[in-house]
Structure formats: structure tokens, C-alpha cells
Amino acid sequence: MKLDNIEHVFFDLDHTLWDFDKNSELAFREVFEKQNIRLNVDDFLQVYKPINFKYWELYRNNSVSKEALRYGRLKESFNALQFETVDTTINLIADDYIEYLPKNNHLLEGGMEILNILKDRYKLHIITNGFEEVQQKKMRGSGIHEFFETITTSEEAGVKKPHPQIFQVAIDKSGAEIAKSVMIGDNLEADIIGAHQFGLKVIHLGSGDQSIQDQYPQVQKLNELLNYL
User: Fold this and answer.
1) Residue 113 gets which letter from DSSP?
2) If you count DSSP H runs as helices and E runs as strands, how many of each does the chain have, helices first?
3) pLDDT > 90? residue 1
4) Which CATH number fits domain 20-103: 1.10.150.240, 1.20.1580.10, 3.90.550.10, 1.10.3720.10?
5) Crossing angle, helix 20-34 and helix 87-100, to 10 degrees?
6) What is the pLDDT of residue 193?
7) By the 8 A CB rule, do 64 and 58 touch?
8) Rounded Cα–Cα distance for residues 128 and 217 (Å)
9) Contact status, residue 122 vs residue 226, Cβ threshold 8 Å
């Protein structure tokens, strides 16, 4: 099962190393308290998560701007919950959320341990569609910034995964050879299919879906990466 001849390992960040769901929940709890939003956070998140996922897909496909994503995902969630609020408040919540989010620094289970093991074997890198100013804070706050030789963001590349240009930018920055590199991520379309079509080896951090596992190497927890690396 080991992947041969690998020298460079490229990671996605959110939902792959950085525990986005947990950190996002903590951020919303702080923001709702600060802005005196009388909503149960658990009820809000149940509605917000699929809406947020939809908006990120739109953002990835250049169908909405960064500003429209930040506003729209909140506005649509509040509407679905029939919670009335004004645009001024929504914009304050959006700004506060971006401020509070990187202050919560939980990694996915085994994140720090796997990086400590892999750093002695490979050159490590990040490729992320997340916002430049937020991703840097997340990595520094969670103590993983030092593990990575390069960090490539979609804002820097001018395109988002799965566009091949972002992978090319990352390869050029790292000095890696495509044939000696592997991409690890949770998003099937953006991370895995995009990287595979570009020519990288891939490992999907997924849910155990056998149909996907038959196509691409898959792990359900980060420590299982050692089966391949």
C-alpha cells in the first residue's frame, strides 16, 4: 500500500488538518454572545453547515465573491430559521466570525502527531482555498505553521482548487516534481480529483465510501496516512 518515490506531501488545511467544524462552532458561540444573538447555536449550525458548504462550492466555481459568501451564508441561514435581523448586524457578525475563527486552534485527531512523523521523511506543503489572511492565522495559532516549507492559497494563485493552475503554482514554489508528490485532502472534487487530473498522487481523507476508495487511496483518520507514507 506504500506510495513509492514520494518526496513532497501537499496538504489541504480546513477539514484535513485544522478542525474547522469544532473551531467554527466555538467562534459562533463567542460572536453570538458578543452581538447578543438570541439563537441556539446548535440549531443555527444545523442549518448553516449545508448552506455554508453550498456557498463554498459557488465561491470555488467563481459564482460568488468572497464578500457575497461571507454575507450570503449568514443571511440565508437566518432566513431559514425565521430570525429577523438587519444587514448591519449580519455584516458585524461576518466580520467578527472571521476575527474569532482563527483564535480557536483545535486540530483533527492525530494532526500534530502525523506532522511530527512526516516532517522527518518528506517536505511538507499546504494548498488551500481558504482566505489568505485567515489561513495564516489558523496555522500560526495552532502551532503547525513551522512544519510547512510552502503555503499556496487560492488568492495568491488567482484560481481555486480544482483548477490546475493552483497546483502548478504550488509545484513551482516548492521545487517539487509532480511524479514525486502526493496531495492529501478531504474534498473529493477540489483536492482529490483536481490533484489527480493534474498528475499528483492523492490520498483522500474521507468517510469510508467504498466506491471512492476503489478509485483513490482513502483514510478515515490522519494516523492511517502511515499506511501509505
Assistant:
1) H
2) 10, 6
3) no
4) 1.10.150.240
5) 130
6) 96
7) yes
8) 20
9) no
